[in-house]
Amino acid sequence: MSVEEYEKMSATEQKKEDWMNSKWRPAMGWLYLVVCSADFVVFPIMWSVLQGLFHGTVNTQWQPLTLQGAGLFHIAMGAIIGVAAWGRTQEKLGGANNGGIQLPANVGTTYQPPGSVSPAMTPNTAPVAGPASTGFGAGFNTPMSAPMPAPMPTPTTTGFGGRLAPIQPPQPII
Fold first, then answer.
1. Which residues of 119-149 are buried (b: 16+ CB within 10 A; e: fewer)?
2. What is the spatial distance between Cα 19 and Cα 16, in angstroms, rounded to a whole number?
3. Do the domain assignments include residue 82?
4. Can you list the positions of beta strands (E) in the chain?
5. Is residue 132 part of a domain?
6. Which phi and psi angles does 98 have, rounded to 5°?
7. CB–CB of 148/137 below 8 Å?
8. How far apart are CA 106 and CA 94, in angstroms?
9. What is the C-alpha separation between 37 and 21, in angstroms, rounded?
10. Are 40 and 71 in contact (CB under 8 A)?
11. By three-state DSSP, how is residue 86 classified?
12. Is the pTM of this model over 0.70?
């Protein structure tokens, strides 16, 4: 591509990345999905069917190929996909291009760096109609209608070793 052709392109065409640069993360995820579903679902079924057709019985079990070598394939793919997801998150937080979508200035991430949260926006606060209850089971920051009754004392007996033990309920007759 010559310099003249590049200058004639629109701004969005100039910013557009190669498809491999922008799509390799999802491609790795789809590849891992296909390989795992083939190795753990499709191939074991085919293995059993083929053994049943040609030998009449299933003598051996399918050994997953991706678990050979102590599962290094899964460890490697987990690292690649995990680091790629973390890297993309960092790119989005840094304001990277989101597939060509131009977001308004007031729209962004919900991430707030530590120390940048105003006192009015502290976590776990919600508008409450009345005073918040402190009892367990009050639910959803609503005041309790009545105090919870005190637990009933349970009768105790002496159990094994002279320790106190609760009375056992009667067993059903079977």
1. eeeeeeeeeeeeeebeeeeeeeeeeeeeeee
2. 9
3. yes
4. 156-158, 164-166
5. no
6. -100, 60
7. yes
8. 15
9. 26
10. no
11. helix
12. no
Mean confidence (pLDDT) of the chain: 74
Six-digit token pair at 150?
A: 């005190």
Query: Are 106 and 18 contacting, i.e. CB atoms less than 8 angstroms apart?
Result: no
Residue 127 lies in a domain: no
Render 39-56 in DSSP notation, one character per residue. IIIIHHHHHHHHHHHHTS
Domain that holds residue 71: 61-101
In the chain, how many domains are there? 1
Calculate the alpha carbon distances from 149 to 146, 153, 166 in Å: 9, 12, 21
Select the more confidently predicted residue: 49 or 94. 49
Strand partners, 164: 158
- Residue 114: per-residue pLDDT: 64
**Residues 56 and 62: beta-carbon distance below 8 Å:** no
**pLDDT band of 165, cuts 50, 70, 90:** confident
Exposure of 83 in the CB half-sphere (CA atoms within 13 A): 6
Q: What is the pLDDT of residues 26-78, one digit of tens each?
A: 899 999 999 999 999 999 999 999 888 887 777 888 999 999 988 999 999 99
Residue 90 falls within a domain, yes or no? Answer: yes
